[in-house]
Amino acid sequence: MRKSPKKTVITSLIIVKLLVIIYLISPGLKGFGETLPDEPVPEAPPSNIAYRLPDEVSFAGERVPLEYFDTRESLDREILISAYRHSSTILIIKRANRYFPVIEKILEKNGVPDDLKYLVAAESEFSNAVSPRGAAGFWQIMPATGKEAGMEITTITDERYHLEKSTQFACDYLLKSYERYGSWALAAASYNGGRAAIDEQIRIQKENNYYDLLLTEETARYVFRAIAYKLVISDPAQYGFDIREEEYYPPLNYYEVRVTAAIDDFADFAKNHGTNYKLLKFFNPWLRRPSFTPRPGKEYLIKIPVEGERMTGQREEDF
């Protein structure tokens, strides 16, 4: 006997619903009759971890007294902030690989402990940032302070953005502070808060140990932040960062052109040296204008990027 159209439609709908139900409850089925292997289940994100501090920590050759609860908790705070500021800390770790080789050589040349390089991470996160107060560059140098130290700071050139010269400035400042305090931790604190502020607190509190002084919030955290970056950058995996070797930013390869005359157009200058305006300014952020007028009798070295090869040294060309 022939089925009625109504019964046929109802039967069809029931079959379709059954097939949909089977599909939904059977993860191995992608289509009707097509069996696929089980897809890997994504790993659940790790639980929040309170990373353990090392039993012993030193900074610039000086022992950090972790047996004091306030010292331990101050460092713990900065470790946790660094470990859970994921994107920012990953960028800091990657950038450190690029810029540390330059900074390390200058610190070593000046007899400044290698650990002081981590101040750059605390100061600027390896970026040419400008603070609300006007401090600029990797080492966050104030205009008046830089000029007092002999840096050229104008609308045309600003040596606070010059990595080598600003690092030399930092070395000179830190060495003078160390001569005054006999402590690299206090020297580092003075770089952040100023010597006058540190002197005042030493006088008021009758203490001359960074870890025993009550300082402003920023300066009180400053050295601990640098120590935290030391721990995280030195051993990223220990603090939850999985960064492959090829993901670190490589050092910049360049040669230097000696300049004593004016440059009317940096775009043309860049093209004449096989690069472009954007890269020229990236390698030389201290050049602040599209053109350049040097000071009479002063020589400048402009970095020219090298593409397609890894340089083992630098060469100079006369211009």
Identify the strand order in the major beta sheet: 6-5-7
| Amino-to-carboxy terminus distance | 102 Å
CATH fold assignment of the largest domain: Lysozyme
Sheet with the most strands, sense and barrel status: 3 strands, mixed
Number of strands: 7
Please give the share of residues in helix.
40-55%
Strand content: 5-15%
At the first level of CATH, the class of the largest domain is: Mainly Alpha
The radius of gyration over CA amounts to: 29 Å
CATH architecture of the largest domain: Orthogonal Bundle
Broad shape? globular
What would the average pLDDT be, to the nearest integer? 87
Q: Total helix count?
A: 11
In short:
46% of the residues lie in helices and 8% in strands. With 319 residues, the protein is mostly helical.
Chain-wise SSE layout:
Layout: H1 5-25, E1 29-31, E2 34-35, E3 58-59, E4 62-63, H2 69-84, H3 86-110, H4 118-124, H5 143-148, H6 163-181, H7 184-193, H8 195-205, H9 217-234, E5 254-259, H10 266-272, H11 277-283, E6 300-305, E7 316-318
Parallel strand pairs: 5-7
Antiparallel strand pairs: 1-2, 3-4, 5-6
Helix pairs in contact: 2-9, 3-6, 4-9, 6-7, 7-8, 7-9
Characterize the structure shown.
The protein is mainly alpha-helical and 319 residues long. It folds into three domains: 5-35; 58-247, Lysozyme; 254-318. Helices cover 46% and strands 8% of the residues. It contains eleven helices and seven strands. The chain has helices spanning 5-25, 69-84, 86-110, 118-124, 143-148, 163-181, 184-193, 195-205, 217-234, 266-272, 277-283, and strands at 29-31, 34-35, 58-59, 62-63, 254-259, 300-305, 316-318. A three-stranded mixed beta sheet has the order 6-5-7. Strand 1 (29-31) and strand 2 form a beta hairpin. Helix 7 crosses helix 9 (217-234). It starts with a helix and ends with a strand. Residues 23-45 and 308-316 have low confidence and may be disordered.
